[in-house]
Amino acid sequence: MSEPSATPIxxxxxxxxxxxxxxxxxxxxxxxxxTSDEWIRTRTGISSRHIAAPHEAASDLxxxxxxxxxxxxxxxxxxIDLIIVATLTPDMPMPxxxxxxxxxxxxxxxIPAFDLNAACTGFLxxxxxxxxxxxxxxxxxxxxxxxxxxxxxxxxxxxxxxxxFGDGAGAAIIGHxxxxxxxxPAILGVRLYCAPNPSLLHIPVxxxxxxxxxxxxxxxxxxxxxxGREVFKIAVRAMENSAREILEQHHLATTQIDxxxxxxxxxxxxxxxxxxxxxxxxRIYINxxxxxxxxxxxxxxxxxxxxxxxxxxPGDITLLLAFGAGLTYGSALVRW
Length: 336
Description:
The chain is an alpha/beta fold. The protein has two domains: 9-176, Peroxisomal Thiolase, Chain A, domain 1 (3-Layer(aba) Sandwich); 186-335, 3-Layer(aba) Sandwich (Peroxisomal Thiolase, Chain A, domain 1), CATH 3.40.47. Helix content is 33%, strand content 23%. Helix 8 packs parallel to helix 9.
């Protein structure tokens, strides 16, 4: 768990990218999948999702989001001296997708660039890592990206999973703030957790434990598998607990939080968290109706949208909440 440095470190800019192709619930129903717009919307809150083109890799989505974040922070690729990409759908097993982003951005050679996989909690894990590395004094500006091309790991014959996910990327620039206000922009805190239970949400094959074989392909074991009922229950409890713990740590009440940005997995999960925390739903940012679950890209896409739609104002405190496979979960407090 990271602690704040003496000089405030803040999110200096954000950016996002969504592929141009939009796949609606009606489109899915027309493929012959046993589903409908009403079935999906009432159970998940999702109406559509973005799907990357065949020529678009996770690194392409990440690079587009990174360019937008750099422009927002009024920085150039030459200003970046650390790149972290949170993803579970890298371009390839090696090298890291972050190295490809470094090349495509034209960032300086010689800077560290690496991937991080904490599934849907990946952006918070990457944010905390970047915060600590900038606080160490060894880096000035870190580029943190959540990027996913989940359409490549979905079983389009399984309505319990394929209707939930989409593709996209979101990015943030982390660095020391120049704001001299009494309460300047800052990352106030991050709390990260893992309650290991890998079988509830996983891709069974493709790693060193179970490499791909013709049989595993025939059994469709190279796609996302999920026990939705159990994941739902644990996700609500985990995100609620992480919210309570970080608020208690920083002596904040829910009334002092201006906006909550949760991982965008299921509207019912978000509504349950709002009810349990007694937090008004209209102060929770929700975009899963248009994006679905984009895993590590979920929070940074929502964060960028919230900023650009003026849901976040200078001085606001935002609470970020995430839960993902592993089972990882966490929370973060950011002042703007």
